[in-house]
Design brief:
Number of strands: 2
Family: Belongs to the sodium:neurotransmitter symporter (SNF) (TC 2.A.22) family.
Protein name: Transporter
Strand order of the largest sheet: 1-2
Helix content: over 70%
Keywords: Membrane, Symport, Transmembrane, Transmembrane helix, Transport
Number of helices: 19
Strand content: under 5%
Mean pLDDT: 88
Membrane topology: Multi-pass membrane protein
InterPro entries: Na/ntran_symport, SNS_sf, YocR/YhdH-like
Largest sheet: 2 strands, antiparallel
Oligomer: single chain
Structural class: mainly alpha
Length: about 450
């Protein structure tokens, strides 16, 4: 592949596509407010003691997440290229192409299994509204039967189609308009479900669990989990914010945008906690049930409450919106790369990559039950892909961002738009705090070190 400087300068497919100021913030919030907030955050909070873990998550988000978020946006806006070439276009050595290509590959891998879970949420929304979800009280058996059959593949295909249709419409007419409608809609649904949850009998115990900290519950393990989730919930290390940064107007304050995105991510996670924990405690469901909390434990709770089919349907519609807003941002990263690299039209790039995503994701979907032979050392392919992307590729990508911005980026001060004092704080975090802590997360999640 020829990535000469002249090639990088000339081939800038998608040039002219831009977010509006509000549209960019909503799109960035949409990329971060995904299943990480609505699915993963509640169960890891439940597994790590509740309120104390939530406070630790906030600290990690402020100290590590936001500095890296700003770095990715600034690199993207400075380079105005795809995630693959942004480092070089921002002034980096051509050797940084490898770091950029990793940030194109990672979202592709994540999207291949992410659309599978998005499909689950669509299935559960429909079966909840129809009432068929509650026709059998064995919710664990229903879930196992569902993911072990053919229907997840059908819904995986539907999720890919919806995601591709939105991205094919472009940055302002597709991604921005989609997020302008659905992010506020998500907030309305969250508030409706939160009011229902906190008014349930016995909900006070769940609210207390989530808001009254018991620091004796925290461990070193909890700290690393909180740091990892703060990092990953903002969509860092996967090229999304580098790509979105390339669509940001040069006059937009990246510092203010970073704070707005972080605040949006935190607010959605906070309200999600006030839905999940009051509901589970109200119906005597343990909050530490892991990934099945959403698809097994909560349907049991909805089945026992008045109008549970309605609130269950609204909840899974909320999950589906969260999943699709993130899927859209994941798809845009490789789409922009192939538009830039091969001068493809947006439509061609979207549908070729969408087809590839579906095909690559099929073995992961099949490994959940239909073809258990699709496994690596006893781990089904779905879980293995999730582990490799989330625990290896994302931390490595994020670590490279901190190293580039902290040590090798000569125009970082100008690109960030920060005043001298704030720039020094930001640079200190990128040089001496973020890389060390991200490296610890990488070593821990990959099993190299244990606490």
């Amino acid at each position: 592949m020829n990535f000469s400087k002249s090639h990088l300068e000339q081939n800038n497919s998608g040039k002219g596509e831009r977010f509006s100021r509000a549209g960019f913030i909503l799109a960035a919030i949409g990329s971060s407010v995904g299943l990480g907030n609505m699915w993963k955050f509640p169960y890891i909070t439940g597994e790590n003691g509740g309120a104390a873990f939530f406070l630790l998550f906030i600290v990690c988000l402020l100290l590590i997440g936001l500095p890296v978020l700003l770095a990715e946006l600034a690199i993207g806006r400075s380079g105005r290229g795809s995630a693959a070439t942004a480092f070089i276009k921002a002034g980096g050595h051509k050797g940084w192409l490898a770091a950029g290509l990793l940030q194109v590959l990672t979202p592709f891998i994540i999207l291949s299994f992410y659309v599978i879970i998005a499909g689950w949420t669509l299935q559960y929304a429909i079966t909840s509204f129809s009432g068929s979800l509650f026709s059998n009280a064995d919710f664990g058996g229903q879930f196992d039967s569902f993911i072990g059959g053919y229907m997840p593949i059908v819904w995986q295909f539907v999720s890919v189609l919806i995601t591709g249709w939105i991205v094919a419409k472009g940055v302002s007419n597709g991604i921005e308009k989609f997020n302008k409608v659905l992010i506020p809609a998500m907030l309305v649904l969250l508030i409706i479900l939160m009011i229902r949850a906190i008014t349930l009998p016995g909900a006070g115990a769940g609210v207390s669990f989530f808001l009254n900290p018991d620091f004796s519950q925290l461990t070193t393990e909890s700290a690393l989990v909180a740091l990892g989730h703060a990092f990953f919930s903002l969509s860092l290390g996967m090229g999304i914010l580098v790509t979105y940064g390339s669509y940001v107007d040069k006059n937009q304050s990246l510092g203010a945008a970073t704070v707005a995105v972080g605040a949006g991510d935190l607010i959605y996670a906070f309200i999600a906690g006030l839905i999940i924990f009051p509901t589970t405690f109200s119906f005597g469901i343990a909050p530490d049930q892991g990934p099945k909390l959403i698809f097994v434990a909560l349907p049991a709770a909805f089945s026992a409450m008045p109008l549970g089919f309605l609130f269950g349907g609204l909840f899974f519609i909320l999950l589906a919106i969260a999943a699709l807003t993130s899927a859209v941002s994941l798809l845009e990263v490789p789409v922009k790369y192939f538009m830039e690299r091969l001068s493809w039209s947006r439509n061609l790039a979207v549908w070729v990559i969408s087809l590839a995503v579906f095909i690559v994701g099929l073995p992961s979907a099949l490994s959940m039950g239909l073809v258990p032979e699709f496994n690596i050392n006893g781990t089904n392919l779905f879980d293995w892909m999730d582990f490799m992307a989330s625990n290896i590729m994302l931390p490595v990508g994020g670590l490279l961002v901190t190293i580039f911005a902290g040590y090798f980026w000569k125009t970082a001060a100008e690109a960030s738009g920060l005043k001298s004092g704030w720039f020094k704080v930001w640079l200190f975090m990128l040089r001496y705090v973020a890389p060390i802590l991200v490296l610890l997360v990488l070593l821990h999640t990959s099993g190299i070190i244990h606490f």
